[in-house]
Design a protein that fits this description.
By secondary structure, the protein is an alpha/beta fold. It has a domain of about 120 residues: GMP Synthetase, Chain A, domain 3. Strands 10-9-6-4-5-12-13-22 form an eight-stranded mixed beta sheet, sandwiched between helices. A seven-stranded mixed beta sheet has the order 3-2-15-14-16-17-18, with helices on both faces. Strand 14, helix 11 and strand 15 form a beta-alpha-beta unit. Helix 7 packs across helix 8. The radius of gyration is 24 Å and the shape is globular. The N and C termini lie far apart (about 50 Å). The structure holds 5'-O-[(S)-butoxy(hydroxy)phosphoryl]adenosine. 5'-O-[(S)-butoxy(hydroxy)phosphoryl]adenosine (WT7) binds next to helix 11, strand 18, strand 23 and strand 24.
């Protein structure tokens, strides 16, 4: 198999050894994959970030430098939900659009260092908007399409965004998603405190939306009038490229800040290595650009490497099962990167669906966002990949910028459901609860030794929280929040989060975020959110709520509805729990701490095997919880 792929076991071993023996030289050499206006003379982060004295612009790296070699090659093939709606942007078209938008932003006073929020459905304009921000040195904050107005308002306020790029509506089958209306509501929530001065509206459909005089404008006419050349802002390597909000164990989402030079090196390096990138590839990553996967492997990685990326507006099985497979067939997709949740949902439709489509263009398959189970991995490999495509299960996080553990096609032997080995230059550690290093085959807390170019710089406005969350728990190492097992051959198997983060369909939700939202409900005295295994979504969200004593039967019934309402309003519909159990108390230790482990087990339907309950302050409550779960699942 080795001739088929750019890496061989030997060249891979060399890479690992080079990275090990002289990281400084190794990363400096890898930085040469980018075009720098001033090349860095140093690699390692000595306090001022990676490639400290390098100067570059990310949009130049993703567009300008490809113009003379592949100006007429498709950079983006966008397939609309409607079969006939296809837009192809060559690298030259992308250049024109990005420059026009960069000029519009500049004309409206957006400057280097300003923040610009992007809230768009799956249209190519999302990528254009990111690159336009990068061109002028503004930091983009891409907001997931499913966020509620309040969730958007929180992020606008925290980032101090001065401009917003949104759409009139999004399309979802026959449904229209009111993007502009949601944005209006989000801005209104903060009233005069909002820093947003401009709202630019992408017209996805003909639908008309109200425009606020002086603040809002349709983007297309402005771009048509703007010049299609725009000088790139020269950035220091460690200047921030973007902020991206993610959930942690506090109630408030954190704005993870990524650098320009280090991040882009990581995006390019990992995209090439794990997807065996070759000229002529058609690369399809199904992620929403609102998540880190959409940043690194829809936009920056593939474009930095001069790939052709495919974007699809629609859903996997709309209007009928098989739609995704048809997109692969039609556009001759070579590389297909998606989530275990999607794979499991598609697997459930039966093998006869994909069998109807010619999937022979596929070369490499990828999975990301949550642990992939053996069955889904095998199905993906055998049925979709026809047994000939390597499946790269890529482990990483918003904070790591790009993949950290992954199979490398041609070089690493697969093991179904294992993310396999750390990438060259990534040094992983397993620690026990006390922070002691574990050797050989072991299971423990996954940490990363030292730094790597893709590591996030900080948390926006809260460097202390960055240190506290990632660097302080195990001094000298980066703490991932995940648990993992390493087998005797050094292969890694991610076991899931060790903190209070729940991963639903690859979407990170903090239990504190849910509990914070629920604390707004007057009738509730406390609540606890836990994750339990879910056949399709990986994890399902379960919530226990405790109403105040003395409520009427009707009030207790309404607690459930209120909970759904407040979670949809505060976070978004994607965070609405599978089950809400109304109980009179939560199991607590004598010092008053909620015992989540127990709540998780009970929510899974366990009725015994809880160990010693005598340490609980209120052991009697266990029976009540078991009954509540049994009644709901009955
Ligand atoms: C968390 C990060 C990575 C981009 C998408 C999610 C889990 C991610 C895997 C994988 C097992 C995985 C981890 C991680 N996770 N990829 N291949 N196998 N678990 O990014 O929202 O920052 O979430 O997702 O728990 O910590 P994110």
């Amino acid at each position: 198999m080795s001739q088929l792929f750019r890496m061989t076991p030997e060249s891979y071993k060399r890479l690992v050894k080079d990275a090990q023996s002289d990281p400084e030289r190794f990363w400096l050499r890898e930085s040469e994959r980018l075009e720098w206006s001033a090349s860095p003379s140093r690699a390692a982060d000595k306090g001022a970030g990676w490639f400290e004295d390098g100067r570059l612009n990310a949009s130049v790296n993703c567009i300008d430098r490809h113009l003379h070699t592949r100006g007429d090659q498709a950079a983006i093939i966008w397939q609309g939900e409607d079969e006939d709606n296809v837009v192809t942007l060559t690298y030259r078209d992308l250049y024109d659009r990005v420059c026009s938008l960069a000029n519009v932003l500049r004309d409206h006073g957006v400057r280097k260092g300003d923040r610009v929020a992007i809230h768009l459905p799956a249209v190519a304009d999302g990528v254009v908007a990111m690159l336009a921000c990068a061109r002028i040195g503004a930091l983009h904050i891409v907001l997931f399409g499913g966020f509620s107005a309040e969730a958007i308002a929180d992020r606008l306020a925290d980032s101090g965004a001065v401009a917003v790029i949104t759409a009139n509506v999004g399309r979802r089958g026959a449904k229209r998603i009111p993007f502009k209306t949601t944005m209006d509501a989000a801005i209104k929530l903060r009233g005069a405190a909002s820093a947003v001065r401009h709202v630019f509206v992408v017209s996805v459909t003909e639908d008309k939306v109200p425009l606020q005089e002086g603040r809002d404008a349709l983007l297309a006419p402005l771009m048509d009038e703007a010049p299609s050349d725009s000088p790139p802002e020269l950035m220091k390597s460690a200047d921030p490229l973007f902020l991206l909000y993610t959930s942690g164990s506090t109630g408030k989402p954190k704005g993870i800040v990524h650098s320009t030079g280090g991040y882009l090196t990581w995006a390019s390096f990992t995209h090439e290595l794990i997807f065996d990138h070759k000229p002529g590839d058609v690369f399809w990553c199904t992620a929403d650009i609102g998540w880190i996967t959409g940043h690194t492997y829809v936009a920056y990685g593939p474009l930095a490497n001069g790939s052709t990326l495919l974007m699809f507006e629609g859903m996997p099985s709309h209007p009928a099962p098989g739609r995704w497979w048809d997109v692969i067939r039609k556009h001759r997709v070579t590389t297909f990167y998606t989530s275990p949740t999607a794979i499991r949902a598609l697997m459930a439709e039966g093998d006869e669906i994909p069998a109807r489509y010619d999937l022979s263009s596929l070369r490499v398959l990828g999975s990301v966002g949550e642990p992939i189970n053996h069955e889904a991995w095998t199905w993906f490999h055998d049925v979709i990949g026809g047994g000939r495509c390597p499946v790269v299960d890529t482990w990483w996080q918003t904070e790591t910028g790009g993949a950290m553990i992954s199979l490398v096609p041609g070089a690493v032997a697969p093991r179904p459901a294992s993310a396999t080995l750390p990438l060259p230059g990534v040094n992983l550690l397993l620690l026990d609860e006390k922070g002691q290093k574990l050797d050989g085959s072991a299971e423990g807390i996954l940490c990363i030794d030292g730094s790597w170019p893709g590591r996030a710089l900080t948390i926006w406005n809260d460097d202390a929280l960055f240190r506290k969350t990632y660097l302080d728990p195990y001094p000298g190492h980066y703490f991932t929040g995940d648990g993992a097992r390493r087998d005797e051959d050094g292969y890694f198997w991610i076991t899931g989060r060790v903190d209070d983060v729940i991963n639903v369909s690859g979407h990170r939700i903090g239990s504190a975020e849910i509990e914070d939202a629920l604390s707004e409900i007057h009738d509730i005295s406390e609540s606890a959110a836990v994750g339990i295994p879910h056949d399709i979504k990986g994890q399902g969200l379960i919530v226990y709520v405790v109403p105040h004593a003395g409520l009427s039967e009707a009030q207790i019934v309404s607690v459930r509805e209120q909970a759904v309402k407040v979670i949809s309003a505060r976070i978004g519909r994607y965070a609405v729990p599978e089950q809400i159990y109304v109980v009179s108390d939560l199991p607590k230790t004598r010092s008053g701490k909620n015992v989540r482990r127990l709540m998780r087990k009970i929510a899974c339907g366990d009725k015994e095997g809880f160990g010693d309950l005598s340490t609980l302050a209120n052991p009697g409550i266990v029976e009540e919880l078991i009954t509540a779960v049994a009644a709901a699942c009955g």
